[in-house]
Amino acid sequence: YEGQVAVGAVVMNRVNSGIYPNSIEEVIYQPGQFGPDPQDGWTSQKSGGYTDSAMQAAADALSGANPVGGCLYFDQGGYGMRIGDHYFH
Fold first, then answer.
1. Which helix (H) or strand (E) segment is 74 a member of?
2. pLDDT beneath 70, residues of the chain
3. Preceding peptide of 21 cis, ω within 30°
4. Cα 56 to the chain's mean position, in Å?
């Protein structure tokens, strides 16, 4: 759950950064930024919809929950703030 909120916080940080697009949709739909890429239809084809945890994490990130400070990036590269298997920087 904390990792889900952290990813949402990265999206919100980008929206508010001035160097990325200024809408959630434009940030998420940037090519190669978030996988699975919503443009490939994966999210619309996934049966069962989103988990309650994912929906709550998104709501919390939208409400300002931010466990990663000003981080704009995350990956499995090995530096930055670690949450689960991902590093936020």
1. strand 74-75
2. 35-48
3. no
4. 13
